[in-house]
Amino acid sequence: MTWTARLQGEAQPQAADEQPSLHLGPGRVIGRRIQRLEDPRLLTGQAPFVADVNLPGMVHAAIVRSPAAHGYLRTIDAAEALGSPGVQAVLTAKDLDELGVGEMPVHWLRPGQRNVSNPILATDKVYYVGQPVAVVVADDAYAAEDAAELVSLEIDPLPAMVNAEEALQPGATILHEEWETNLLAEHIASGGDVDRQFEHAEVVIAERFQIQRQAGMPIETRGAAATYDPLTGELTLWVSTQMPHLVKTDICQVCGWPGHKVRVIAPAVGGGFGVKEPPYPEEIVVCVLAKQLARPVKWVEDRREHFLASVQAREMTWDVELAADGNGRILGLRGRVIYDVGGHASAQGIGVPIVGTGMMLGPYDVQHMRVHILGAVTNKVPAGAYRGFGRPQATFVMERLVDELAARLNLDRAAVRQRNFIAPHAQPYRNALGHVYDGGDYGRTLDRALRQIGYDVFAARQAEARAQGRLLGIGFVTFVMEAGLGPSEQIVRGGHMTGTYETVLIRMDPSGKAVVYCGSSSQGQGHETTLAQVCADRLGLDPERDVVVVLGDTATTPYSPASAIGSRVGMVGGAATFLAADRIREKLVKLTAHLLEANVGDIEISEGLAYVQGSKDRALTIQEVATAACLGSNLPDGMLPGLEVSETFDPPVSTFPYATHAATVEIDPDTGGLTILRYVVVQDCGTMINPSVVEGQIAGGVAQGIGGALLEQLVYNSDGQPLTTSFMDYLLPTAVEIPDIEIVHLQTPAPDIPGGMKGLGEAGTVAPAAVLGNAVADALAPFGIRVTTLPLDPDRLWRAINRRGDGAS
Amino acid sequence: MSTVDLASSTRRVRIEINERAVEAEVEPRLLLADFIRERAGLRGTHLGCEHGVCGACTVQLDGEPVRSCLMLAVQADGRSVRTVESLGRGGLHPLQRAFIECHGVQCGFCTPGILMSIEPLVQEGRTLTREEIRHALSGNLCRCTGYQGIIAAVELALSWAHT
Hints:
The complex is a heterodimer. By secondary structure, chain A is of the alpha+beta class. Chain A is built from 23 helices and 28 strands. Chain A has 3 domains: 50-158 and 222-300, Aldehyde oxidase/xanthine dehydrogenase, a/b hammerhead (Aldehyde Oxidoreductase, domain 3), CATH 3.90.1170.50; 316-483 and 654-803, Aldehyde oxidase/xanthine dehydrogenase, molybdopterin binding domain (Aldehyde Oxidoreductase, domain 4, 2-Layer Sandwich); 486-649, Aldehyde oxidase/xanthine dehydrogenase, molybdopterin binding domain (Aldehyde Oxidoreductase, domain 4, 2-Layer Sandwich). In chain A, the strands form 7 sheets. Chain A has a 7-stranded mixed β-sheet with strand order 3-7-1-14-11-12-13, sandwiched between helices. In chain A, strands 9-17-16-15-10 form a 5-stranded mixed β-sheet. In chain A, helix 11 (351-358) crosses helix 12, helix 18 crosses helix 19 and helix 20 (691-710) crosses helix 22 (768-779). Chain B is of the alpha+beta class. Chain B folds into 2 domains: 9-86, Beta-grasp domain (Ubiquitin-like (UB roll)); 94-161, DNA polymerase, domain 1, CATH 1.10.150. Helix content of chain B is 34%, strand content 15%. Chain B has 6 helices and 5 strands. Chain B has helices at 3-8, 32-39, 94-101, 111-123, 130-136, 148-161; strands at 11-17, 20-26, 58-61, 64-67, 80-82. A 5-stranded mixed β-sheet of chain B has the order 2-1-5-3-4, sandwiched between helices. The radius of gyration of chain B is 17 Å and the shape is elongated. Chain B starts with a helix and ends with a helix. The model of chain B has no long low-confidence stretch (mean pLDDT 94). At the A-B interface, helix 1, helix 2, helix 5 and helix 20 of A face helix 1, helix 3, helix 4, helix 5 and helix 6 of B.
């Protein structure tokens, strides 16, 4: 029995109303807990990751990085490195300039944004410790790293700016002098007339929240390997990325190379979580070097480099106010958030706080808000995507405010939420910022989660524990997120460089087997399995025996502008697969009717057969029908031979999956250590293609959220030196810290998406910080402590308990 | 700089890897992990941190799980190493089958190290509670699964070992 079955099957049987009520496909493959097709090669060590790419004559690159957080780069002396054993070349910005290589584009732009591209290697200034300055290439990685240490940099140091709020003060050290400010860009997320709401509010909760710098931290670091064929002029890059097609687009743009001569392959990728979303300078550099040296070049990031040069995330300071009436009805939200951008814009600009703030009012029927978003540069690693993309922060802020509102009015926290939820009959609901939700019953997820965790009896348990000096708390949060993202036109209008459609090509050959080609890539989400299930479902095939899914190779897959971001592959890729497979199915049905001399309407397809409804003896195998179609014999009038279909799906709308998370915790007053007693998730992600995959995504996301809430923090000192550059300093949760995660599914198919998927990948990460923040505030209520700062590590909790209510937490 | 001196002297080592002797002339500083990957050509052993925390590079040295990133190849001279490639020759190992059944794999990068950490417990037929399994896994970081499927897989494999 699997863990999911144990959690749901016996102990907590699903109510009948929670069973999927979907029209499943002819093969009934969508919705099945099949085993993952990816697993055997991963479990046997046979899956090739980028570090495993080895080619004859391959040389290895090591990156020389800035040791200073801020300063003028005066000289780079590579003479000693060039004389070091095995060294082939040293590359600097000057060389790139001579080769006509441009700058890395920023993909997310706001009007007036001051930073639209960034140098690949530092030119005259360095902005953070770890910024790439030069590249050394040698016969092996050890020799390259030795020689990289011999490259001597002369840097005139400047004062470091490590606090985004201070960076916006008058007189602050300016990083990019030509801007005359540290403000990268700003945006006002506004709807309704919020100031008016505050005028007649009976209660105003004003609070300042600080969320720490974190990072996605996949266990596989980044890496890239390139080879160039001088005879054909073709370049191939293997890269650990979420966006192979966009990496290719950037290479072509930055280097001026033609797209048909560049192939980018995302092989097995060991986790992404947003870190591997943007194309990176090192990826361009290995391509340039492979061409210049006419030898394959490989670079594999080490973990220390990952802490110095891969995008970081989450750091924001919020000053916000919530207005409500005396019954706890929320009237409006206003305030300001300062986003710490790091040394320069990452590919995502200030997209992260914009996306987070966009859904900040979540499940609540509130039509008035205004949040001023300011992105300030600091001398730290550029900040960008991390699973959740601003939503965990915004949810933490909003849900802490709601709990504080309930406490102020002495109302039950669940009751306040229920009072403010958008009613199911008010769907589709247009939120204050214009997002139109596609359905949702938020009260039901909250009820279900509270029932699961035993909210009704918790207060008594808590009181009993308190009498014994033990600190128990409960927290719960309901959220809605925008997923999938669409339509493309609207996303591009919003400032993102690319649209969000997906194209899927399905090819069937005379054997009756199908190959699905999708331009997205997988970093562990199981897309090969889920897309195979969708295809198999529509075509009456066995997903394990009859379908192969090809991902992440620009030479063989259709262009994919957004690939594996935004919780979109299951939904957008799934829908495109659904449509493409249905078109093949349509052709198989017509051809079968012709071959069997039956009516088209009477033909069914399932379990490898195409047959006349009700009489399985009048049947052909899919293989026989496919053979006829592919060989082009005995076709009905007007039917073209072949069984190959390409379908593009551009989501007409975004989808709005939602969930309630609830947790109980115990805090040790002597150590400040927190133990999660139970963690419950009630999730509606629309159609589940494979519930086991869904549960894996939820659990993984929750674990990352727990890490961010309790453990993880990237620390810089006042000189901008990073103090957390190993897993001994930056603590990821282990199996010991993560409790059993209890998952209950609701399943309301997305009305506008073929297949009904709503998207899920990021959902697990959105709530844990808010849930645990609320649980800690509840546990520490006797001390009068406000929970406003993350992480909730033992040090912070112990100080809060022992200082008794000075707001330190 | 002493690094150049380190590189200049080499030593011959002979390490038995998955019951095959691999001999090579190596720099004393060569990591066992790099020896396994680059000299023996066994790429299933992954490097996640190179400072002994994440556990992705775990292999067995004379039957004991070790971090191959914290060991030099010369330290393993004359000894016997098992890597993930040794599991399930001629069919998947029960532990591997349990990982498939319980969705214990997502990206799979940490997986070989976890298998090599846990396999001796399965071999010994140990009886472990869920909490003990959690502690047995605590030397291996996984960023994808939240450990749920992994814990279930270990539990299942241990239960099979008893039947």
